[in-house]
Amino acid sequence: MKDKRILYVSSEVVPYLPENEVSQTSFDTPKMINDLGGQIRIFMPRYGSINERRHQLHEVIRLSGMNLVVNDMDMPLIIKVASIPKERIQVYFIDNDDYFKRKGTFGEDDQPMYEDNDERAIFFVKGVVETIKKLNWVPDIIHVHGWMASLLPLYMKKFYNDESIFADTKIITSIYSSGFEGKLSENMFGKIAFDEFNEKDIAGFSDATYANIMKNAIDNSDGIVISSAELPEDLTNYIQSSNKPFLPFDAKENMKDFYPEFYLQKV
User: Fold this and answer.
1) What is the DSSP string of 104-165?
2) How many whole angstroms separate alpha carbon 137 and alpha carbon 139?
3) Backbone region of residue 19 per phi and psi (left: phi > 0; alpha: psi in -120 to 50; beta: other values)
4) Within its chain, how far is the Cα of 9 from the centroid?
5) pLDDT per residue over 48-103, tens digit each?
6) What is the pTM of this model?
């Protein structure tokens, strides 16, 4: 993995959010690749629950200041950065006061899921790609974790497909058992369709369940990692029938034995 550039894009990352399957794996995997000599960067949303003083976040003025269009609205992009203590791994935070300056991560006690989580996801993945372009740091591999980041394969393959700097970048998506109940939004198809995708490429968003959103990510990824011991049967079958290289679930202590080969040879 020496000097390979690996970008991790995740909904949640330890130590900035509480430990769960997504947030812990989104820390363990970059740490392992960093220890093997890879060049690592992580992107995640800057949720309101993240204590900026404790984690020493600071705004990157040269990267902030652009506006991103989401569903015909101009939304200002703010970029903040911090380093994971003792790991020498930079974490970039995609921020916007309207979307992320809230008490909850994906929702609150009286509202388990925010109604605009679909817009937040669109803003997040656009913000990641635009920031990479400004950094002029082109990853060899982008590894996606969590449903808030799961639109990135679609946008990379279909929206930013004319960006020549990403011509050789491969996209891997981790699939987890945990997601959300019901639908992300009744209007998600229309909000994504605003970006002028071919309707067949986004058909699944007309019924924006967790499974359908992850199936779209699988369709637009170059490789899949099964990151939970058990997945819903329809997702397992979809992965197996996708003809994409996939890495079966295994214990995290074995990661260093199979991830490098999957990154460099399978994908």
Assistant:
1) SSS-BTTBSS-TTHHHHHHHHHHHHHHHHHHHT---SEEEEESGGGTTHHHIIIIISTT-GG
2) 6
3) beta
4) 4
5) 999 999 999 999 999 998 999 999 999 999 999 999 988 889 999 999 999 999 98
6) 0.96
